[in-house]
Structure formats: C-alpha cells, structure tokens
Design brief:
about 300 residues; alpha/beta; Rossmann fold; 7-stranded mixed beta sheet; 11 helices; 13 strands
C-alpha cells in the first residue's frame, strides 16, 4: 500500500520508470528518514581521539561512500552538542555526501559551488582543499547566502568567499576560472519527500520539466566558468530521468567537447540514504576552440575525479 502523502502522478511516473522495483521504492517512504553527519577534517580528523568518543556517544556508523561521513540514530541529536556549534562536524543527509566526495577537489585548486546553501557540499569541498586554493561558494538568495556564510565561518574555513550572484553575473566575473565546479541543481526534490512532507505537496506533474529547463540555463553559465580540462559535477536530490540523465544527455549534445566520466544514483530502497543523482563531466578542447554555439571554451586534462 503506497503512502497516501505521495502525489498520484509521482507514483505513476515511478512505476513507469522503475517497473518491478517500484513497489520496493514506494515502500521505503514508510521507513524512517536517514540521519547523517560529516566530520570536519579542518578541526579534527576521523581517527582523532575526539572522534572515538563521538562514535560511542552518537552511535555512529560509517557511510560507505564518504570516509568522513557517519550515520547516527535520530535519538542521538548531535545538533544539540557543543561540538556542533564548534564546527567539528556538519549534519548532512548521507546521500548528499556522494557528489562532493566524487568531485574530488585537490588542495590548491580553484573550485566553485554554484548553488551552495546551506553549505553541506561547500564545507565538504573545503575540507578536501585543506586550506589551500580557493573556494567560491555562491547562493543566489540573500537569506540562504547568510546561512551559508555562517556555516563556512563555523567550520573554520579560511580560503573561501561567499557570493550571492546570479549564475550569468558570476560567469561574467569568472570566465574559464575554475578547476572544478559543483552544481547541486535546484530540482523538484523528490528525494526530500520523506524528510519534508511539504515538498511532496508542492510537487506536481509539471515540476520535472520546469526544473529541467532551469537546470539547463544554469549549466550554460557553469560551462563558461570552467577551465580547460576542468571537471563539472552535477547532482540533484530527485529521481526522474528528466532532471538527471536527460539533462546530462542534453549537455553532451549541446557541448560535444564534454565527456561523461561517471554517473551514479543512490536509491532509498537500495542504500541507506534519501536518494541522490550525481554525474561528472570533463571539458576537453584546446583553449581557443569553441564549444556548442560558441558559449564556452575548454581543454583536455587528466581525469582526477573519483568515479
């Protein structure tokens, strides 16, 4: 029996998309949401003594796709502990840890988190940069940008700036500038239904198409900011193909000098997580060669992304 809170149109689409797996997927909505946190290596590494104590205190279990990530039971309430206020860890849904982990930024690189609030992926990227290089964490909405700034400060990140600009305005300022770009794209939020019932109420049959159009517009600007040989990471917390595989297929057709390095889905009926889609692409061209309709340029470099 399907949860009554799910939109009928969503259930129909999932059954068409997943076929025999659909019932197991729909049954996952009757289960408790997954809770997770990620330790901040800028303040304490996962093997430090403080984390040995926290593992016991919060009954932590390792997240398999993120070496700094842990599951915790809901009753642990780590958000109330002083170590949270001190920035020793960031509370983050485990599926969402996958994209920045696979983006694999290296110390010294320039990285853009294009839709950064509230800061999960930005703070994760900063931990991997180890205080070297530059992180630009952008959030178009001023109120959410303030929350992003607060989390950047709480985690003790010194090599980041927070901007609140539209993607097209940012592209004018940073042409061909970033080694890696993370776009956790605004989406229809189908992976948020278990966490936030309001997300299910706001969803409608037209949501995927509307969001896909917006995602493509943002990607057009993201491409302009990528260095020759740069890596573009794209992720959503939604399940439909329209906002995931079909957006990536559009990007590859529109900009043929991109090549797909890896793509992956986390499904809540298969893994301990609310669900996520991630894809990574590399831009390959000489700097003076145009891409698509002349909207960007790129170059070929060794792939360092973790697939």
């Amino acid at each position: 029996m399907e949860p009554l809170s799910l939109p009928i149109e969503f259930i129909t689409r999932i059954r068409e998309q997943l076929g025999p797996e659909a019932e197991a997927f729909l049954a996952s909505y009757a289960e408790a949401r997954t809770q997770g946190l990620r330790c901040n290596p800028l303040k304490a590494a996962p093997d430090d003594a403080v984390w040995k104590n926290l593992r016991q205190l919060f009954q932590l279990e390792a997240v398999p796709w993120c070496p700094t990530g842990f599951y915790y039971p809901e009753e642990a309430r780590p958000g109330r502990h002083p170590y949270h206020a001190a920035g020793l860890y960031y509370i983050q849904e485990p599926s969402a840890m996958a994209s920045a982990e696979q983006l694999a930024p290296e110390p010294g690189e320039t990285v853009l988190d294009l839709a950064g609030a509230p800061g999960g992926k930005s703070t994760q990227i900063a931990g991997m940069l180890q205080g070297r290089g530059l992180l630009v964490a952008n959030e178009i909405h001023p109120g959410r940008a303030r929350i992003l700034s607060e989390n950047i400060e709480r985690m003790g990140i010194s090599n980041a700036i927070v901007t609140s600009m539209t993607p097209d305005s940012l592209a004018v300022r940073f042409p061909f500038f970033f080694d890696r770009i993370m776009l956790d794209a605004p989406c229809s939020g189908e992976g948020m239904f278990r966490k936030d019932p309001d997300a299910a109420e706001e969803w409608n049959a037209g949501s995927p198409a509307f969001c896909a159009a917006r995602q493509k517009d943002i990607l057009k600007d993201a491409v302009k900011m990528l260095k020759p040989g740069g890596i573009l990471g794209y992720s959503t917390c939604t399940f439909n193909r329209e906002e995931n595989e079909e957006v990536i297929q559009w990007l590859l057709a529109e900009y043929p000098l991109f090549r797909l390095l890896a793509s992956e889905r986390i499904w809540p009926h298969k893994e301990r997580g609310e669900g996520h889609f991630v894809a990574f692409l590399q831009l390959g061209a000489k700097p003076d060669e145009t891409i698509g309709a002349g909207e960007a340029r790129g170059g070929l470099a060794k792939n360092r992304a973790k697939g």
